[in-house]
Amino acid sequence: MKKYFPFLIFFLSIQISIGQNLPSAGVTELYDLAINYRADYGSLSRYYFIENSPERRERFEQFCQDYLSRLEVMPFDKLSTGGKVDYLLFKRHLNERLHQLSVEKSEYEAVWQWLNYSDPIYQLEKQRRRGKHLDGQAVAGQLNAVMHALHEKSKAIDKTQPVFPRNLTRRAKGIIKGHQEALKSVFSFYKDYDPQFTWWTSTTFEELDSVLNDYSKLISTCVDTLTLPKDDGSGIIGKPIGKQELIRQLQYQMIPYSPEELVAIANKEFAWCDAELLKASREMGFGDDWKKAQEKVKMAFVEPGHQPEAMLELYNQSVDFLKKHDLLTIPPIAEETWRMRMISPKRQLISPFFLGGEVLQISYPTDEMTHEQKMMSMRGNNPYFSRATVHHELIAGHHLQGFMNDRNHEYRFFYTPFWTEGWALYWELMLWDMDFPRSPEDRIGMLFWRMHRCARIIFSINYHLGEWTPQQCIDFLVDRVGHERANAEGEVRRSFTGNYGPLYQIAYMVGGLQFRAMKEELVDSGKMTYKEFHDAVLRENNMPVEMVRVILTDQSITKDFQSSWRFYD
Predict the structure, then answer these.
(1) What is the 3-state secondary structure (H, E, C) of 41-67?
(2) What was the pLDDT predicted at 369?
(3) How far apart, in whole angstroms, are the C-alpha atoms of residue 300 and residue 531?
(4) Cβ-count burial of 499 within 10 angstroms (0-12 exposed, 13-18 middle, 19+ buried)?
(5) Cα dist. 49→42, 100, 117, 119, 129 in Å?
(6) Is-contact 25 407, C-beta < 8 A?
(7) Residue 339's beta-bridge partner residues?
(8) Residue 25: its pLDDT value, please?
């Protein structure tokens, strides 16, 4: 016993430590439901993994309705403020999921006549999941019949030349991809383990997969070209969503402003940037020619090979400033564990500037780039521009956000870019107000990014309203913000073809303004210190910013809560 006594003491001390940090004070009454939902969703997603299949869609419709019913029986009025927030956000999430499933259903039905060969494929995968022995000869016959059906449908398409809106073409191709995934799942399961199945089906599976590839390409030719955005010379073909969907998504994100109101806010913020930019330009001796002042800043780039150590120096300056002013708690392990990697030349086409999180990803020229590309990359990633955003990407921005999300209210799955990017952008606003820039060159750098975030609202909304083309967005960034053209192209390409949601670029400045308004309400009024406020936000995890405000101000909210916070004066 004596031999194990030190280990026992250590084990008990760990248990006591864990007990002192149990989530009892850090979770709400919705904890168990949210944990079960995420686990159940994961189990069902892995089981019904064939995207766009009716079986999967119908199961998830039932699943979401079941959880809505479980929510409804909870005593909303007796919940804590945080519990009420979780309830409302959980319900919001489930309703949005049901909306997406209804869109999937309507689009599936609209193209079904061209895809109704697929039932044997779905049935084979259904049997495969439980390992049923399949008759190889019968399966080969079924698949051969599917191939004949596809040939007939191909002939019908050639003859009738149907035309689909782009969303239906995209859905049809997704359905066909699901058929191929189902076939792959079946064949890879039985191949070689069942000799008679392998003998009968190997060639047929390969042939059918090839026919499905051809059929998918044929479906692509059916897109209604009148519904496609034209290539305006930029080579960027995005997916403008229109005003109605913009408004719906803004409501979902709890932003009670119209697209036009957000553009007006961006223009007002832009005007402030213009005035500050002229001040800095004059201090540098360039008068009102701010582009010449910006040009001098751009030419202060570091030599190739030295950008990582320059970023480390900028990070140290930023964190030292946060600590000096005691602005928030910085866990030692968060400081210890972030690291760097370089972004590939291909990735730099859509990410021309560094990205953050636990890994700081650095854009800088490589030897395979042209001279012009190298110069634009170095100029656009000069230390003054980078100093303006290193806190956005690391601490107290994205790295610290992810670190804290893993450790506080981790059951909350209410992700929104208005919290993610808004919080990181808020620190750019905050540090400007606290005189973090030391010189007019520093201010030029910070203003470049602040103008860029204003510009993102303006060009994103105008694009999705169908009023601007990608090339107009690129020109706007070059002329109005001072981007290098290649970097502007990368930003616009990232915005419209980089798998970001339509509101993602809007979320930076809008979310930052939300956090700034909340800071004015709680810190400037003396109700909380900076550190208390910032720590409290990070403890609540990712959610619409208005809901963070509800929790921190302990608002009384009802079951039929609707977003109404007008955070910008």
Answers:
(1) HHHHHHHCCCCCCHHHHHHHHHHHHHH
(2) 87
(3) 35
(4) exposed
(5) 10, 17, 20, 16, 11
(6) no
(7) 359
(8) 54
Ranges of H-type helices in 254-299: 259-283, 290-298
| Spatial distance between the Cα atoms of 216 and 168, rounded to a whole number of angstroms | 12
DSSP letter at 481? I
d(CA 359, CA 340): 5
pLDDT at 350: 75
pLDDT of residue 2: 45
Q: How far apart are the first and last CA of the chain?
A: 70
Please confirm whether the linkage preceding 396 is cis (ω < 30° from 0): yes
Considering Cα of 40, then 41, then 43, then 44, what sign does the dihedral take? positive
Q: Which amino acid is at 155?
A: K
Residue 354 burial (CB < 10 Å; 0-12/13-18/19+)? Answer: buried
Q: Which ranges of 112-254 does DSSP label H, i.e. alpha helix?
A: 119-129, 136-160, 166-190, 195-220, 242-252
Residue with the two structure tokens 């409302």: 88
Q: What pLDDT, on a 0 to 100 scale, did the predictor assign at position 367?
A: 86
What pLDDT score was predicted for residue 10? 42
Q: CA geometry: angle at 498 spanning 494 and 504, to 5°?
A: 75
Query: Three-state SS for 362?
Result: strand
* DSSP per position, 494-525: HHHHSS--TTHHHHHHHHHHHHHHHHHHHTTT
463 touches 470 (CB < 8 A):
yes
Instruction: Identify the pLDDT of residue 7.
Output: 43
Report residues of the chain scoring pLDDT below 70. 1-25
- Residue corresponding to tokens 């090339």: 471
Supply the pLDDT for residue 330.
98
> What is the rounded CA–CA span in Å between residue 378 and residue 306?
11
Contact criterion met (CB below 8 Å) for 180 and 209: yes
Is the Cβ–Cβ distance between 463 and 496 less than 8 Å? yes
**Residue 359 backbone dihedrals phi, psi, to 5 degrees:** -110, 120
pLDDT at 346: 82
The SS3 call for residue 21 is: coil
